[in-house]
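Listing 4. Sequential folding, example run.
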Amino acid sequence: NVVLQIFVNKDLHPELRMVSWIVLFETKPSMSLVITLAHALQKEPNLQVASLVYSHMKALTRSTHPEFALIAAASRVAIKILSPKLDKLSFRYSKAFLLDGYEVSRMVGAAGSAFMINDAATILPKMIVAKARAYLAGAAADVLEVGIRTDGIQEALLKSPFLNDDGLPRMKQVLKA
């Protein structure tokens, strides 16, 4: 309930809302909640949040793991609702990636997910979170989880001695922009 309230509160920072979306989908929400959120997302003013949510749901539609079957079905319906508005967003917006495979007969599988959270003010993503999960005989284990924040990297590149006036002025202009 708390995470849902954070996500729907449009006054909060977009990065916080995007992270709350990731946490919300870790709980495997019901189909009705996913559809309700899709309808609410049609009026979303922040394209960074909308892009992350849309790409995450679109990635979930291709999931083959039985654990995610209901979420994949709900995401397919939500994608049909949202695709006219959000299907053309580029990579400068936040994105989610999901790759998984599961073999039912052996009850073995693996999944990898990555979330790239961008900000309109910078070229580089603000945060990248990646997770690898393994499935064996009905049990799941997070094998690896990595998060990287890129705060200050763009400023450090601008102050770099490699970007002096006679070195790469075009690159310096791009970073300043």
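-- end of first protein; second protein begins --
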Amino acid sequence: LDTLEKWVTEIFSEIPNNGLPKPSFGHLTQPFDTPEFHKLYRVVPVRKVHSLSITWALPPQEQHYRVKPLHYISWLVGHEGKGSVLSFLRKKFWALALYGGNGETGFEQNSTYSIFSISVTLTDEGYKHFYEVAHVVFQYVKMLQKRGPDKRQVIWEEIQKIEANEFHYQEQTDPVDYVESLCENMQLFQKEDFLTGDQLLFEYKPEV
């Protein structure tokens, strides 16, 4: 540690501090509010695969890292049990897999906006009915919106426990990758959350 401290001091101490706060672009909260983002785009893939991706541009969510609302919603959307979107689509032989969520870094989440995406891997039959698949997804999201999260604290606590177990029993990572991750966390979270802010859920706030 003494050697590392010496190196860091030598390398970084000469960098001047201009005393300015960290730049924020939080005032630009609707970058995608244009007609072009209310359309369906068809893209021909290089390999033979059918995929339907639905994307929403939301207000920035990084300040809610202790609640992780998008993680909570993606958990519900991506559930595969009885009554889930994927279960219904599989019974119709329309879909093979479904993923919903936000990577919580870089392009997907920053001080300007947050992206929430749902991606469905379709069968050949599902490709023929992709409008109906999209309709089912929107119906499910509408149902979540209508019912609200108030009665689902049990689900949130379940997610919290699972993430806590994964954190405590995670495999050791490469030290360089770990340091890089911590440096990124230092730009995003409060000091007490540098080690855990990107993984754990701390507070249940249904209004968020």
